[in-house]
Amino acid sequence: MKLARGVLIVFEGIDGTGKSTQCSLLANSLSEKQVPNIALAEPTRGTWGMKIRRLLSEGRQDITPQEELSWFVNDRKEDIETNILPALQKNKVVIMDRYYFSTAAYQGALGLDPNQIRLDNEKFAPIPDRVLIFLNSAEACLERIESSRDQKSAFENLDYLNKVQQIFKGFNGPNIRFIESVGSISDIHEKVLAEIDDLFDFN
Ligand code: ADP
Ligand code: TYD
């Protein structure tokens, strides 16, 4: 199936809400329908992304919120040039596991202005056709993380994730949908499909 243009779908929410799981289910389901798609994730595995990963594993230490913000923004600028724009120009569905709403929420929770971060990103970043913001209690999310891996990152603590989720809940716009990420993985997949259905003409 050929699309008339590229479509950008973004998954957002705190750690452990099930975004990665649902991104790959959506990619599979589009591929089954022969819809060209690519699944991407931020932070990336590029130069800035790897610097960010060291911060996540080793902790923030003396880095300022502004510096931290600039690392995520630099990573995104690289991702847009290298991966996102080329895929959109090929009329693919680009599925993003995190984008600039994460920057507004996570770096906003450090005391920076979330709306200003969003506006600044929208000056250079393609605006998504749909943003699915996953919500679940931070306690449940941390439990999922603890039972799935040994190490938690420096960002994965209850107080911080609660602050971040409050900011996520405050976003609004015609492209934004909230998804309660409770229930089975397949139930949530159905909710995802229902929230993006209008972007495609599958009949
Ligand atoms: P995120 O990308 O938002 O951090 P993941 O998709 O990595 O979240 O999911 C975190 C953990 O929770 C994984 O171990 C995953 O298998 C599990 N998980 C995902 N969705 C559900 C669900 N609906 N119910 C229970 N566990 C889930
Ligand atoms: P995550 O999606 O968990 O990456 P991975 O599964 O590959 O480790 O993202 C890592 C962390 O980065 C997560 O706690 C959210 C945080 N983050 C920000 O603080 N700001 C941002 O702009 C982005 C994209 C992520």
Walk me through this protein's architecture:
The protein has helices spanning 19-32, 47-58, 65-89, 100-107, 114-122, 138-148, 158-169, 185-196, and strands spanning 7-13, 37-41, 93-97, 130-135, 176-180. With 203 residues, the chain is α/β, with parallel strands linked by helices. The protein has a single domain (7-198), classed as 3-Layer(aba) Sandwich (Rossmann fold). The longest helix has 25 residues, at 65-89. Bound molecules: adenosine-5'-diphosphate and thymidine-5'-diphosphate (TYD).
List the ligand species. adenosine-5'-diphosphate, thymidine-5'-diphosphate
Backbone CA Rg: 16 Å
Number of domains: 1
At the third CATH level, what is the topology name?
A: Rossmann fold
Question: How would you name the CATH homologous superfamily?
Answer: P-loop containing nucleotide triphosphate hydrolases
Strand content: 5-15%
CATH architecture type: 3-Layer(aba) Sandwich
Strand order of the largest sheet: 2-3-1-4-5
Give the helix tally. Answer: 8
Global mean pLDDT: 97
